[in-house]
Predict the structure.
Amino acid sequence: MELKDFVTRIAQEMNLQEEQVKNTLELLNGGATIPFISRYRKEATGSLDEVQIEQIKTMYARLMDLEKRRAAILDSIREQGKLTSELEAQLMAADTMSELEDIYLPYRPKRKTRASVAVERGLEPLAKILSKQQPVDMEKTVRPFINPEKEVPDAEAALAGARDILAERLSENLQLRAMLRNTFRQHSRITSKQVKDKVDENEKFRIYYNASEFLPKAPSHRILAMLRGEEEGILRLSIAPDEEKTLSSIRRKLIRNNSNCAEQLWMAAQDAYKRLLQPQMETEMRKFYKEKADTEAIQVFTDNARQLLMAAPLGQVTTLAIDPGFRTGCKIVILDPQGQLLYNETIYPHPPVAQYKLASDKLKRLVSQYKVDAIAIGNGTAGRETENFIKYIPFERDVKAYMVNESGASVYSASPVAREEFPNYDVTVRGAVSIGRRLMDPLAELVKIDPKAIGVGQYQHDVNQKRLQESLVTTVESCVNQVGVELNTASKELLSYVSGVGPALAQNIVAYRNEHGAFNSREELKEVPRFGAKAFEQAAGFLRIRNAENPLDHSAVHPESYYIVEKMAASCGCTIPELMKQPKLRKLIKLEDFVTDKVGLPTLTDIRQELEKPGRDPRSHFEMFEFDKNVHKIEDLKPGMELPGIITNITNFGCFVDVGVHQDGLIHVSRLADHRVAHPSEVVHLNQQVTVRVIGVELDRKRISLALVTE
């Protein structure tokens, strides 16, 4: 299959123009990144977004895999000397991997089977006679095949061997397999039972001890939960449609009459289904529905990760960050507006030490001395108690305290990245630094840890880890490039996600910056070792230089388009800085005057938007949030209470809400809205501030049931 064939098929499946797909694939194959193509090659793609470009890339990879497998199968059959023109045409026409494998099945090298043994014993001619379903004198027909020397001592042994041959042939029948595959996909039930004598600590899988549901409608989180239960040896699963109905369908398809040969064929068909086809189809369905559940779970995880990464930043302010604790004290650090560590110490405002006044006086002095603008408090152990302590300190400055989600901070603090950044400090100081930086700029800090450690998904440890990691990396890259990166202050971890950069070039950029000082222009990037023309093309538009000599270097206008802005300014009789500062001048621009065979209205529209708000941050503005001051622990919750909360995680079955009691509550999807919703993300988003009503509290299981309060 040639590229044009791939293009045609992808265009048809995605309902796109072939030119859009062709140009996108050429850009991808030429080394262009998805963020670059989406942002700077809109004319070529017809303004496809990142999701569509990713779909094209995924479909192309899938079709390439199909072609590689097709070639391998053709080579295998050709080596066997069994490749006919008809078989080759059949293989070339196969559209899916399962169809391809079904065609190959009779030619696949096999270990010794009951059928192959029967063939060696000379029973294949008898099997052919039985397959014709004609009435015969069975005793007379079978007699020539009885041969004690070949371990066929009697008529029944001969018939049994012939049925083994028929069963294997039926299990390889293309039409029968297609029918059963369709039946299994559309009508299967997944059934789980507890494995006898297996101990299920905490009864995690109790609801699945004796459960059965229609598989095509089973939610992905339940499928993954059952599969995990099986993996842990607690559950035994089976997947199958109704056996009686399925066998009836097979009989109608295969059996033409009531002859004695048809009776033998029917016996072989039942054996083929129960011994060969049913297990094969169950394995296939497990793979099919596992992949489907993985896709849904990965989508949930990446959607949540995107929302977390794109959370509103407080901005560059001097910050005092606290990693709270009781017995071990509260670790405090002070960070300058660029996130650099200025000071660290431990205070003990809580029992058992309870140095309340000493801790209070120390914080007052530090806030005044360092001119602190904000206080970041980790939301883990002792978080609410620390927040309450802070609120009653009479600071001399107007300083606000914010609760910060610290999920994954401990992962960062023990990571090689943190050790390299703070080699002379222990994990507690590094953790506090991470909490403070998350308040200032969540994206810049969270890129330093594995997104899986953030904890905003469902069953992320049960899905395909390679696919999950690839999706998360794509999501992080998308977020970083959507926001843009300040070239002179960004960490190498943040730089590594910039389009066309990667870890090695990011390290080179930082090394160059350390040696030569701040970059003065984007052009200076070309002086960085190994930062060639391709890397510059892919990366330059996403890198920003604050206070650069050329103001466009702080915008998302790509250097390749600077000449267009120069022409725009000339047409208005002004300089570029004047054009960027004065709206009345920009209104004089007629975009149609600058259209060429390479530059169209989509790019020109983007340029004009950038001139209006250069380097604009697409993230929302930071909002203050406070928990109910009367609620600090789960025992304080009572049914009927209405409380402020913040969404911490979204799953297919509902969303989790932090109400300030160190245990998130669950709003089941049925309690998210008055009407039925397909997914909780239709109603809420991560970090959203909401009002919830307490429905129930299970103290022994630490479970909180909530409902969303809507106006």
